[in-house]
Task: structure prediction
Amino acid sequence: MIELEGLTKRYGDKTAVDQLSFQVRPGMVTGFLGPNGAGKSTTMRMMIGLDNPTGGSVRIDGKHYRDLAEPLKYIGALLDAKAMHGGRSAYNNLLCLAQSNRIPTSRVSEVLDTVGLAPVAKKKSKGFSLGMGQRLGIASALLGNPEILMFDEPVNGLDPEGIHWIRNLMKRLASEGRTIFVSSHLMSEMALTADHLIVIGQGKLLADTSMADFIQQNSRSYVRLRSPQQERLRDIITEAGITAVSVGDGSIEVDSATSEQLGELAAGHQIVLHELSPQRASLEEAFMQMTAGSVEYHAHSDDSEAADPGLPPAPRWGQGSTKKNKGA
Ligand SMILES: Nc1ncnc2c1ncn2[C@@H]1O[C@H](COP(=O)(O)OP(=O)(O)OP(=O)(O)O)[C@@H](O)[C@H]1O
Result:
């Protein structure tokens, strides 16, 4: 378990991390999201004592990092894959780490095997590709067989096979009861990996919730219907007191009834349906909706609706961007 209490980091008059309090619990993958500059890396660095907080505290299994006798056996971290000594082989990089942390030498070969680097164990790490460097960084995090693992952008530079591998590795480690905390900008990947989400913006906590609740609370869900009797279908839905909107592609969208209700309504009037599909926004859409007001740097957009960088994107019918009230 990782516990943050009022964690704060200021650089001069810039508050990078602002009174953050949350817990990262064991047995699940917790995703850490936030726009660029939100304070994710700074938070993670403070978790393993690489930066000192200006205020508040982080506890690893109830202790401050500096009070852990053998920290690598409690928490392993991949923060900067380039932090390895380039002149040393993959094996020797890990051997030095093992020896200085009283970790059995046998673990070095084990973790090299786990991350798929055994065939290049004797090669100098400066010749490694970005993906190989990531794997070596992951091996160093696993070295002490810790109960808590923290990965900052672990899929950076990995090919699809590598991304699939790290996703399964994180899920397996979590299923063993470990605490897994991971940041990534790849929303589609995060949606497949994380069970729980911590979202920050401008250093502040925006959400601490399950993946399913986060998507539900920050996006619009609706049912899409298509029928060769589209006009009659829309009239019947409207007569039932439900708002139905015809959209350009010949379908009807309804966001105040379930697909079961609509299916039964259509069947009751013997209307043929070609589509009856509940639509749920993606994590990416939900994330953009939630963090729209706390993005530090915006790219200029030619899209007139999104041209004002100070404004959140306008809600669009059919694109899952209408904000729902909490619990709706
Ligand atoms: N050493 C430093 N000195 C001054 N400002 C810093 C320092 N480190 C980080 N910052 C600032 O703190 C804020 C948070 O940075 P941080 O790198 O933690 O964000 P992040 O969420 O990890 O961003 P990204 O997603 O781009 O990696 C940024 O505005 C950054 O410019």
